Amino acid sequence: MSAEARLMWDEGVTRYDFGPGHPMDPVRLTLTMRLVEALGLDKHIDVVAALAAGDGTLGLVHRPDYLASVRHASGRPTEADERFGIGAGDTPAFAGMHEVSALIAGQSVAGADDVWRGVTGHAVNFSGGLHHAMPDRASGFCVYNDAALAIARLLERGAERVVYLDTDVHHGDGVQDTFWNDPRVLTISLHEHPRTLFPGTGWPEETGGRGAPGGAVNVALPAGTSDGAWLRALHAVVPELLAAFRPQVLVTQHGADTHFEDPLAHLTLSLDAQRAAVESCHSWAHEHAEGRWLALGGGGYAVVDVVPRIWAHLVATAAHAPVEPQAPVPETWRQTVYALTRQQGPRRMTDGRVPRWQSWQDGYDPANAVDQAVLATRRAVYPLHGLLP
């Protein structure tokens, strides 16, 4: 076992279940952990279960009336108060909702604690990344915002500079809103353009509140953006901002819903591009944050073909035990997939692509929609960090 990295895991997180037919199928968590085990990654990383977050911790981000509403709906789902975003639309109430949401949050908060205290260099909670939850309401399948809570714990412990990087296909609106006026936190989100996707926020002009000008960075990419263009956008914005902000901790969110198979969005990344982004985040943590890295899951609704593989790659990267993309998927895991879903699992840890991208320094193409999006972001926020767009 190694103290270099921790995987925060409790089987209880699989009770985060909105019911039959809901896209957020908890089988994606089960299949991910079983793949981690089948690949032997649990021998290279400390697997640790943390306690559920208590009200004192949840209150670092969420309002008391909201917490009371979630707790009530958790015991009586038919009496959920829709004013708090629970019980209607995309976040229906279910029995035990408070307990399992607090458990997921507890894994992220404990991971942040461990990283800050130097107990481990990297911590992963792929059940987390529930970035849409607001201080006063649930939203977008998210009840408690574990990412924001983890950052709030880091600040409580004395961190002065934290970068949150969100690579989910949806804008990381809940985290951005929580720290809108906090100069200690820089939120960066790459996502599908708000014109075409929930939650309709994340425009490049959203650059932080009066208390934190430049504290929010948004790269809004056109539907259809694929591997090379997406990676070009990521590298055209993130490294320079990290160097300018000098974070003490890097918190990243790795929603798998940028994939071309995802049923809820319109970007067209391969698993291999997602893996390249994970590797970059790992490198940036070492280069800019003294190796302090908290990595979270997020969205992802191709629950067999995509989510388990990319999050297994995330765990492998954090554990410094990378899995070769061409490696076969263990047959024992494919049998588990069939037993749980009656679907055939993928056969390799790759989509068969080799992502390549041009650096921003290779030239701006004014006719390219992705380059236009990147330039809009750089123009909006770079001067606020003393950088040239």
From TrEMBL:
Keyword Acetylation in annotation: no
Residue ranges of every copy of the Histone deacetylase domain listed in the record: 22-317
**InterPro entries named in the record:** AcuC, HDACs, His_deacetylse_dom, His_deacetylse_dom_sf, Ureohydrolase_dom_sf
- State the UniProt keywords alphabetically: Acetoin catabolism
Source domain of life: Bacteria
Q: Does the keyword Acyltransferase apply?
A: no
User: What Gene3D superfamilies would the database entry show?
Assistant: Histone deacetylase domain
This protein's pathway: Ketone degradation; acetoin degradation
Indicate the family of this protein.
Belongs to the histone deacetylase family.
Q: What name does this protein carry?
A: Acetoin utilization protein AcuC
Species the sequence originates in = Streptomyces johnsoniae
Phylogenetic classification of the source organism: Bacteria, Bacillati, Actinomycetota, Actinomycetes, Kitasatosporales
